[in-house]
Design goal:
alpha/beta; Rossmann fold; 6-stranded parallel β-sheet; two-stranded antiparallel sheet; 30% helix; 22% strand; globular; GTP binding; Molybdopterin-guanine dinucleotide biosynthesis protein B
Length: 166
């Protein structure tokens, strides 16, 4: 079964990606959605801590689970393993925050005219989210309304599931 993956990306930080994804999840609450956030900053696994030591020793997966909080953090030696693990969870949809240059389909948030010129450099843009006037693009342009974007995602998902060539 093909699981749709859609990235919500932008050229800059603080463009409202997280808030938009929260709203999309709320609008699509009948779906099982997995979310991955791309970070260009160091995350948690501090030098010398147990999970760091396990990975340094060669563990392909190292996890930490908290009895205080209802969560777990999993460190993988290979980023490609993340998608394999998510596929095993059988979500209806995987949303990636960021991943602007990835091979995955994406909705790109545009805030100014200068960014329009950069769109062609970004792979697999399936739609633009913007409140500025944009002309002469062959891809859909969506207002930054979470309900409209959620409907677009549902429509995209139906197209993926009906496409036998994938």
């Amino acid at each position: 079964m093909k699981i749709p993956i859609i990235c919500i990306s932008s050229f800059e930080k603080n463009y409202g990606k997280t808030t938009l994804i929260e709203d999309i999840i709320e609008n699509l609450k009948d779906l099982k959605i997995c979310v991955i956030k791309h970070s260009s900053h160091k995350i948690l696994d501090d030098y010398g801590k147990d999970t760091w030591r396990y990975r340094k020793a060669g563990a392909s997966i190292s996890a930490i689970i908290s009895k205080i909080e209802d969560n777990a953090i999993i460190y993988l030696s290979n980023k490609k393993d993340t998608m394999k693990i998510l596929y095993k969870l059988k979500p209806d949809l995987i949303i990636c925050e960021g991943f602007k240059n990835s091979k995955y389909p994406k909705l790109l948030i545009i805030k100014n005219q200068e960014e329009i010129k950069k769109i062609e450099k970004i792979p697999k843009v399936i739609g633009i989210i913007s409140d500025i006037e944009i002309k002469n693009l062959s891809i859909p342009i969506l207002k930054s309304d979470p309900k409209i974007i959620s409907k677009f995602i549902i429509s995209y998902m139906k197209g993926i599931k009906n496409d036998r060539s994938l």
